[in-house]
Amino acid sequence: MTVRVNKLSSTAKPRKPASAKRPPKRPATRRKKGHSLISQLLKWPLRHWKPVLLLVLFLLGGFISNLDRGARYVSRLRGLKKFLPEPVAELIFPPEYLAFGLATQGEELFGTVTKVIDGDTFIMKSVGGREDSYKVRMWGIDAPESSQEFGTTSADALSDKILNRAIRLQVAATDRYSRQVCRVFGDNEEDINLYMVKNGYAWYYRDYADGAAYLEQAEAEARRNKRGLWTYPAPQPPWEYRKNNRD
């Protein structure tokens, strides 16, 4: 009697030996330093930076040319303050933008002076369509600082002319402190900027009003007649005083 032994089918898959298991996964390695996006950009040759620089210069030029328009938009957006929580409002707008209004170059404002800070700076509460407070820096003049000799006298002279009185402003610019730089007109359209220089309460500010001949003549007249600060032998200009105290 013969015993038949069934051979393995040729289609059957042989078992894998234990040693043939999948290799363990390699641990993820962190990106080596020096392969960040910034480091890669820094490796770009100069010719690759030219389009980027041109784009930045184009955007910067557009921003500068629309500063006055931007001030108008900021002024409108400030109306949202009352609808926003205070922390959110301060995050969107710096405190100086929240405290005072912003006007555009050439705009006229009417209102009443509520506070005189020194001989060339005050706060006005406007009336009419845009009721707001404005911090005003008088155009073309520079008065002694409050801590400077003759500073209190200059501030008192300005207070006597405009404090709690109605005035008209012609906006010339907005300075870096968010103040409206203006020509100021008081009772009977009197030019208050001219009054302060002519009576020796302020200097003609040549650096920021070059070519204003009438202010230059008014200062020369005050010097000649020894009015106000020109009664002192050598009064120190406020721009020099600020520079010396800043250094």
Summarize the structure.
With 247 residues, the protein is α+β, with helices and mostly antiparallel strands.
Q: What would you note in describing this structure?
A:
With 247 residues, this protein is of the alpha+beta class. It folds into 2 domains: 43-92, no CATH class; 103-246, OB fold (Dihydrolipoamide Acetyltransferase, E2P). Helices cover 36% and strands 17% of the residues. It has helices at 37-42, 46-65, 67-77, 86-92, 95-99, 151-162, 192-198, 213-224, 238-246, and strands at residues 108-118, 121-126, 133-138, 141-142, 166-174, 180-185, 203-204. A 5-stranded mixed barrel has the order 1-2-3-6-5. It has a two-stranded antiparallel sheet with strand order 4-7. Helix 7 packs parallel to helix 8 (213-224). The chain is elongated and about 115 Å long.
